[in-house]
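User: I'm curious whether this sequence folds into something compact or stays loose and floppy. Could you predict its structure so I can see for myself?
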Amino acid sequence: MFDVQVFGVSAVGAIVAVCALLKEVGFPQKYAPLVAVVLGVLTGVFLVDPQNWQQGIITGLSLGLSAIGVHSGIKNVKEGITKKVDQPQQPQQ
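Assistant: Here's the prediction. I'll summarize afterward.
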């Protein structure tokens, strides 16, 4: 596995952070995956590999899709924790 860093910052983490920031300012959450892929492709083409745009697109797609997976995983864990806290423990039969 490779770690793509742009200016010393992990690109996947930065994309997740931008999507979370957009959600906080009122951007519809249903468009977050699209935003993540677009940001990933732009990062891949313009920052990671500007001399080879085909490789930049492939790398960018990997970055954007990875960011979607990280975002989804965090959301699922948060929902699971919230459900366990909200529901009282039921006795075993």
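Summary: DSSP finds three helices and two strands in the chain. The CA atoms of residues 3 and 9 lie 10 Å apart.
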